[in-house]
Design goal:
Elements: E1 5-10, H1 20-36, E2 41-44, H2 58-67, E3 73-80, H3 86-99, E4 104-109, H4 116-122, H5 133-143, E5 165-169, H6 173-181, E6 185-187, H7 196-206, E7 218-226, H8 230-249, H9 262-265, H10 268-279, E8 282-284, H11 286-300, E9 305-309, H12 315-330
């Protein structure tokens, strides 16, 4: 467990009272701070038609972050492949790898990252992208591979760049694919923990060694909020609860400040759902979160990397949470 790596995911949310530009500036500042804390990687998600998120042009944000950092790996959590031609993705990420060598990751998802109407506006085919995901992952691997394995159509300057591919999942489907292709597997436990245990087990049991990996590599993304006390962390986590409820209500409002009256803001059903989500998150003091992380390992098995996402309104409190999480991992 002492060898576990620590990374972060950012959806580039807009906080209440902020502009789009503010959110992007915060994205860069957080990346710089996590780089100083020696976080392994910093991934940016892809979402569309979401007025509270600025992460639609993911590749541009990754490039912008790379330009303002010097060593932390930066990548996609993920590029939603049904929305994009693999050739274009390879050209974009091959170019970034050329400019910023050994710092670019390409996490790949099979969902559209939006609602179905927006997905229809995004997609380049008649909704076949989800079903073609395995073949398109293979296309990307070829585009980034050596010249003697290329076909006539090549993704310059991606040829030979070997940009690492990661398979993202929120169900068991992608676990099979990641295992069969011998690629790292990233599970979205921060919003879809229901099938997490089964998916990780499937990936580990069915894993086939490849040129990329000799053994399984599991990254789990979890909500994490660490503060001086459990009470303070739970108070900060009321922001996360409001984010989750905003999504289920279809309102997609900016990130809200924490509240002392969460129960009064939510319906009884929403409040219970929020409590359940908090229980599956790493929320509490350093001691409490360390215990929760150990309990997670006991239940789900060893993981290679924890990717944290922290919906905290106050940016200093957010950074302190990431700092405390790093302390926990470092002394585990």
């Amino acid at each position: 467990m002492s060898d576990i790596k620590l990374s972060a995911l950012n959806l580039v949310p807009i906080r209440e009272g902020q502009s789009d530009q503010d959110a992007i500036s915060d994205m860069v500042k957080l990346a710089q701070n996590l780089e100083e804390l020696d976080y392994e990687r910093y991934w940016i998600a892809e979402h569309h038609n979401a007025p509270n998120l600025v992460s639609s042009a993911t590749a541009l944000l990754i490039q912008h972050t790379l330009e303002h950092t010097s060593k932390i790996r930066v990548g996609s959590g993920g590029i939603m492949l049904p929305n994009h031609a693999p050739l274009i993705v390879a050209e974009q990420f091959g170019t970034m790898e050329t400019v910023f060598p050994d710092r670019v990751d390409l996490g790949l998802g099979r969902a559209p990252g939006t609602d179905m109407m927006t997905a229809s506006a995004l997609r380049r085919d008649q909704h076949n992208g989800v079903y073609e995901f395995p073949e398109e992952v293979e296309q990307l691997a070829t585009y980034f591979g050596p010249g003697n394995q290329q076909t006539y159509v090549r993704a310059y300057p991606a040829v030979g760049k070997n940009v690492p591919l990661y398979i993202l999942g929120s169900s068991t489907d992608s676990a099979h694919l990641a295992a069969r292709k011998g690629l790292p597997y990233v599970f979205a436990g921060h919003f879809a923990p229901q099938q997490m245990k089964e998916a990780i087990e499937i990936y580990k049991e069915l894993f086939e060694p490849s040129e990329v990996l000799s053994k399984p590599y599991v990254i789990v993304c979890l909500n994490a909020i660490v503060a001086d006390t459990d009470t303070q962390a739970e108070y900060l986590a009321t922001t996360q609860a409001q984010v989750m409820v905003s999504i289920t209500r279809g309102r997609m409002q900016p990130v809200q400040p924490p509240t002392d009256d969460l129960k009064g803001l939510l319906t009884p059903t929403e409040y219970e759902i929020a409590k359940q989500r908090m229980q599956s998150s790493l929320i509490g003091s350093e001691e409490t979160v360390k215990q929760k992380l150990q309990s997670f390992i006991d239940e789900y098995g060893e993981i290679d990397e924890l990717m944290a996402i922290s919906y905290i309104y106050d940016q200093e409190a957010q950074l302190e949470s990431y700092r405390k999480l790093k302390n926990i991992i470092s002394t585990f």
